[in-house]
Amino acid sequence: MTICSQIKGYARSHERLADASSLLAVALLFTTIWVAIDFQAIIFSWIQQSILLHGPAVILTLMLDVFLIFMLLNIGSTRLESPGEERDDRCFGTFRGRRHGGFNLGTVFHNWVQHIEQVNKKHR
Predict the structure, then answer these.
(1) Is the pLDDT of residue 62 over 70?
(2) Nearest partner of 95 among 75, 76, 71, 74, judged by Cα
(3) Rounded to whole angstroms, what are the CA distances from 20 to 5, 15, 32, 34?
(4) pTM for the predicted model, two decimal places
(5) pLDDT at residue 102, rounded to an integer
């Protein structure tokens, strides 16, 4: 049993934890936006002191922040899954998308070309 399935099982049985993690994700998102806007001048002056040291630190902090937001949203969305549904152990596979396997740019372009060809045939 993987850690993902253990976390999902615990969140399914404790709905308040799932709701709290969704709320924390939204609060973390808006807090990050507020800090970036409100302390913009201070952050930029700190980065300019040593761009080779402080620049990657800021980038890693933002990446950690985005990871935490996605993780909390995934934990919060487990309450939407029904108990009889097939369970998979994918950590970040909560939203499955369309049944054809997801978004494919090649398929979209091919369908668009076919549409344009059909439009051209009608207007000849």
Answers:
(1) yes
(2) 74
(3) 19, 9, 18, 21
(4) 0.63
(5) 57
The CB-based long-range contact list for 106-111 (8 Å cut-off, 24+ gap) reads none
How is the chain split among helix, strand and coil, in percent rounded to 5?
A: 75, 0, 25
Rg (CA), the chain: 22
- What lies within 8 Å, CB to CB, of 32 at 6+ separation is 62, 65, 69
CA distances from 86 to 7, 83, 117 (A): 16, 8, 41
Longest dimension (CA), the chain: 65
Give kind and range of the element (H or E) at residue 66: helix 51-76
Q: What is the pLDDT of residues 67-102, one digit of tens each?
A: 999 988 888 877 666 555 555 555 545 455 555 555
Distance CA 54, CA 51 (A): 5
The per-residue pLDDT for 105 is: 74
